[in-house]
Amino acid sequence: MAGRAVQIARGLAGPALLAVATLLLRAFRADASDAALAYLLGVLVSAVAGGWWAGVVTSFLALAALWVGFVRPVPARVPAGADAWFALGAFAVSAAVTTALVARAGARFRLAESREFQARRLLRLSERMLGGAGEAADLAAPLASLAQACGQAMGARRSLIQLWDPEGGGRVYPESDRAIWPESSLAAVAGACRRLPEAPLFWQDPEVGPLSVLPLARRSAQPALLVAAGAPPQPDMAQAVAGLGSLALERLLLERQIFDAEAVRRSDALKSALLSSVSHELRTPLSSIRLAATALQRPDTWADPQGRVELLRAVDAEAERLNRVIANLLCLSRIEAGALQPDRRPREVAELVLEAVRQAGPRLDPARLQLEVPEHLPAVDCDVGLAALALANILDNAAKYAPAGTPVTLGARQAPGGRLVAIWVDDRGPGVPPAEAERIFDRFHRAVPQGDRTPGTGVGLSIARALVEAHDGRVWVEARPGGGSRFTTTWPAAAAGAAAPSR
Questions:
Q1: How far apart are CA 149 and CA 162, in angstroms?
Q2: What's the rounded Cα separation, in Å, for the pair 361 and 384?
Q3: Domain count, the chain
Q4: Which of 73, 255, 263, 496 is deepest in the core (most CB within 10 A)?
Q5: CB-CB contact of 224 with 217 (8 Å)
Q6: Contact 425, 409 (CB under 8 A)
Q7: pLDDT digit string, tens, across residues 63-87
Q8: CATH number for the domain including 203?
Q9: Residue 250 structural domain
Q10: Separation between Cα atoms, residue 236 and residue 246, nearest integer Å
Q11: 269 vs 41, 274, 314, 397, CA distance in Å?
């Protein structure tokens, strides 16, 4: 309505200009040729401002004003000659041609503007489609974004994507819009599209108003419907949006298939690596236990008390090693399942350190261990079992790769600010190259020199990092002054006034 009023106001500009020009021309006693030129200018302005109908009305008014005011003034004393009629005819033809040309140019200009506007909308739609689904957990967010982008390109008030289902039970994206759209309108869409339409559909919904339904990805495994509320777009615009939307939807579905296939491939690779590493870790202690058990069955073994004790110690050590492997596997499965929930309580640092040393097992010779744990450290807020397992894995890693007989240092200090307690492990091993400082904590990654046959699964440090981060801490490795590596972990200090449980 407002646009129509503006157009009428523009159309009246020509007659108003014509009236002003008539007054000025009569005041200066202009002749008919000058008046014709001035009136032709008024017709041109009126046609440009108001369109062809305004130009036609102004042309008739100008022709009447030219006849009455300049060609045959009233009252007429002499009949009009041939030259007067020729002038009027020439003016009429000029006004008609001018109006037609200006109206045609204006229509083309408006069409070009409209197409430019549509092209910009389609360009924005194409740009928004370049993002893809990425590694989103599901397609809900990408499909909601696609529905919004397609609706904006069509100039719709609101829009949604409904996965096509012959039974009418397809899911709606954005899912939050299901409460906004009337159920009767969605039911009408489902009823009209029990057979997937070949082309866009348009109708007047009693509750929503003008409704457009565009089929998307008709030949894909999961076709969909774009439902938009608002003035129906031009047919070519609807076809363009349907085409771009179909390409975007097919791309999202393909990306999801690729992502799922890659996830399955990675899972299979991890399982293969885990089975290969764990089978080796389990086979070695089982073989040692079996050999010791076989030896203990011999009568001469019982005649040698010292040999019998050594064999029993070997059985105990290998059983503890098996226990550590199984504990790591159970912890890894909890991490993979997202079921790791630490039972955090205030614990003394000394208690945590002693539990970590106990869990480290026989690989860590007590004679090699050096403790640097000062007194009066604040308690740490942790699950002592999980935190000790993290430190035990780091201790086991240090004992495994450091030369035999070299010391392994376990120390603690209060971090600056008092909100964290740092616990570190020093070894005198070959060290970790700077390029491996971050990757060494990846699952199944082992930064060992070529030809190194040190046993291991490559999961100990990754489990340690997951456990430390589950306590809102950090773990990193750096070069130790004098050679070797230093693994540092941080743990949150317990709140002031929180007492550790008595042992």
A1: 15
A2: 17
A3: 3
A4: 255
A5: yes
A6: yes
A7: 777 767 666 654 544 455 566 666 6
A8: 3.30.450.40
A9: 140-257
A10: 15
A11: 82, 8, 34, 24
